[in-house]
């Protein structure tokens, strides 16, 4: 009897150890991740790659290559950096061929395409007008109608001829500004770098413009916060598995002249800053498309949603903090959740 009991105890112990091991193997997440922040493109970039325990090196390699991809896009496309390809194109005289890398060409081709699709609301050739308003913001003095007309006269895609390996301007003073699309392209390139490094999932967030893919460390889809345009906190969250969420808001980057606030987004129809849409958020398969359409709808407002291509969804917050309206496409609504106090209960028609 006692011999039996003695044998029985180790049997239980073995069972317990095996069961615990099994439970650990089952419930210990197979995925690991990292979360790092960098100063890129005049803002904070947060990268969150995910890999399996079998491939831990994908985190380090993914981060390194994704950051390099973002910095490369910044170096090629910034109009502020003196030796960027875009700076070269902008300072070139009419008729001079300016060689461009495949990256810059790809973004210019997409920018030209979205200019057409958005009825000219997204127009990367408004560089001369942007330059005028940036200077006005610094000098704290509004430009004259004449200055605006002069700048507007050298805007438009008809002033640029895109060739296979570069571009030529047809008029002196024409300038491209990729500020409304290059960040998205950089995010796409960073996501590509994470995939190539072997990551099974990841998130790239550059100043609130986000793209996600694949798996999180813990199960479930990615959840992306959309900032409240009127104050601190979030207006809500977007849930998605693969794709991008970009927001254009005039609450973040703007300037003041004589007590009035002006957006950094130009309405190409008037060559003046837009002022009616505090925040536009767009969901699209790629960050390049989401970024550009967020800027386009900042110009067009809610009526512009009819121009959105298939697979692109939007939310437009219009008007002022006192009397704002929130519009969203059906597909956006399916993925969006309001954070209190925002939402249908407070804003029911
Ligand atoms: P951010 O996300 O950095 O706030 P946006 O995506 O909203 O920027 O794009 C705004 C930037 O796009 C401006 O700073 C300017 O460089 C450029 N831009 C301004 N107006 C237009 C326009 N109508 N079309 C294309 N680009 C524009
Ligand atoms: Mg944009």
Automatic annotation (TrEMBL):
What organism is recorded for this protein? marine sediment metagenome
Keyword check for Translocase: no
Give the catalysed reaction(s), semicolon-separated.
Answer: L-threonyl-[protein] + FAD = FMN-L-threonyl-[protein] + AMP + H(+)
- For this entry, the protein name equals FAD:protein FMN transferase
Q: Name one Pfam family in it.
A: ApbE
Its ancestry begins with: unclassified sequences, metagenomes, ecological metagenomes
Which cofactors, if any, are listed as required?
A: Mg(2+)
Task: Give the E.C. number(s).
Answer: 2.7.1.180
* UniProt enzyme class: transferase
């Amino acid at each position: 009897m006692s011999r039996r009991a003695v044998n029985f105890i180790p049997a239980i112990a073995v069972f317990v150890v095996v069961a615990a091991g099994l439970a650990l193997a089952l419930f210990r997440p197979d995925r690991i991740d990292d979360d790092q922040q960098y100063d890129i493109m005049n803002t904070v970039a947060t990268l969150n790659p995910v890999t399996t325990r079998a491939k831990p090196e994908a985190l380090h390699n993914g981060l390194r290559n994704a950051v390099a991809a973002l910095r490369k896009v910044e170096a090629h496309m910034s109009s502020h950096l003196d030796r960027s390809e875009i700076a070269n194109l902008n300072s070139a005289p009419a008729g001079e061929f300016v060689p461009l890398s495949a990256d810059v060409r790809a973004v210019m081709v997409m920018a030209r395409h979205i200019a057409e699709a958005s009825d000219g609301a997204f127009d990367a050739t408004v560089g001369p007008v942007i330059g005028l308003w940036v200077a006005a913001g610094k000098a704290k003095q509004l430009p004259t109608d004449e200055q605006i007309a002069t700048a507007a006269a050298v805007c438009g895609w008809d002033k640029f001829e895109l060739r296979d390996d570069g571009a030529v301007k047809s008029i002196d003073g024409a300038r491209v500004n990729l500020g409304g699309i290059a960040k998205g392209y950089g995010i796409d390139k960073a996501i590509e770098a994470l995939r190539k490094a072997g990551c099974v999932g990841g998130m790239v967030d550059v100043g609130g413009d986000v793209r996600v893919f694949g798996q999180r460390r813990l199960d479930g889809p990615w959840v992306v916060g959309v900032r409240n345009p009127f104050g601190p906190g979030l207006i809500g969250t977007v849930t998605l598995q693969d794709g991008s969420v970009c927001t254009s808001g005039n609450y973040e980057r703007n300037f003041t002249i004589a007590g009035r606030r002006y957006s950094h987004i130009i309405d190409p129809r008037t060559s003046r800053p837009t002022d009616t849409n505090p925040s536009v958020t767009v969901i699209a398969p790629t960050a390049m498309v989401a970024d550009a359409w967020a800027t386009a709808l900042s110009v067009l407002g809610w009526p512009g949603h009819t121009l959105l291509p298939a697979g692109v969804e939007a939310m437009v917050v219009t008007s002022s903090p006192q009397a704002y309206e929130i519009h969203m496409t059906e597909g956006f609504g399916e993925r969006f959740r309001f954070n209190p106090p925002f939402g249908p209960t407070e804003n029911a028609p």
